[in-house]
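Known limitations

Structure tokens in this collection are predictions and should be treated as such. Users comparing against experimental data should check residue numbering before alignment. To illustrate the layout, the record for VWFA domain-containing protein is reproduced below. The input appears on top and the generated tokens appear beneath it.
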Amino acid sequence: LPALLFADKDICNSVSHGCEQVCVNTEDSYICKCHEEFILKEDGKTCRYKDVCNSADHGCEHICVNTDDSYICKCHEDFILREDGKTCRNKDLCKSIDHGCEHVCINNNNSYSCQCHEGFVLRQDGKTCRYKDVCKSVVHGCEHICVNNDDSYICKCQEGYVLQEDQKACRRCTEGPLDLVFVIDGSKSLGEDNFEIVKQFVSGILDSLEISPKAARVGLLQYSTEVRTEFTLRQFSSAKDMKKAVLQMKYMGRGSMTGLALKQMFERSFTEAEGARPFSANVPRISIVFTDGRAQDEVSEWAARAKQNGIIIYAIGIGKAIEEELLEIASEPSYKHLFYAEDFTAMEDISEELRAQICEALKMSAHQQDPASGRLRKTGPQPSGPESTTIAITDVIACPNLAVHHKYLFEDSHTHSTATASKDKDQCKCENLVTFQNYATNEVRKLTQRYIL
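Generated tokens:
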């Protein structure tokens, strides 16, 4: 009976059918259907697009693939899907990103690393490359030795040579500009035979130098009871003439006034009047002092003055030479500037070692460093002798009434001091540079003890 009652009725319009799109009557019921391009979902009522990928803004970079009522993104061959599920990257990561590798990019699972071509190494940034051996990869121009220095290079010289101003060419240590004054003991204790050995020693040193007005200038003093200038720095411009003068030196053969000789060396031998170059030229000033016994006068004052004025002193003692005097004469450190032997048979060895030490001093000068003697750096031309000397004290040293970081004017006792100089001397209790250094050393020692203890 119910079937007959509903036979001619439109059930879709008489009930809440729930069809999303189309309701279709059947004999005694209804079914839901969908519009074209849609398909019915499993609930039998709602619809979905047959092709979701074409119906929605799926965002797939490469390929959209329908899955029931949704979709998934896929990538073309040789690509893989990124974590966002939409975009793709090359399976070869190096090709898919701006890796920044200068030479070669190597894939490493989900990452990469940079490598360099043969003959190169990776820099610390992990991307750029440099030559393993820069010296072999460029025309470096080094005359002797090229040394790799990170991604650049520096030139160095073989032993016995120093680098010239162009930082490429080399010259012998003793080819450089140098003002050298020998101070030779001609006392009676030496003897004429040994005096001849000393002359040979001087000639040997001269053979290792390039003697010329622009290179090495050499002067020589002989001392005994008095001091005699055998030749000045300006007198000879060739080794031949100089060696001839050495050969013709007459042995004085009397007392041993070493202090007097040091005084003349300091006051006269290194003056421009006798051929020394001005301080502004930065030419090393070296004195080689030879003695065979105890001095008959005081050596410490004039040795100290010479060293404080920038003269490097090498002391050579033979036989009865007194170690204490040699230490007073020689520059610091003594192991580089003091030579002693029991007799004259060692003169050749001393000559060789002395040439090596002079070479080292010239290397330091070439690099504009202060010599190992610890002397103070001068601020400009400084006259030797009785003229006042300006020294730049760069260390800050505690004086009673002021911190010393200034230029002090020290004058010899026989010159007239300026008011400022006298005031500074009183404040620091300094009458000359030697006293000042001693005072400063004591003050530093006191401060050290105070803060340590």
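For this record: The chain has a mean pLDDT of 79. The first strand starts at residue 22 and ends at 25. Please report discrepancies through the issue tracker.
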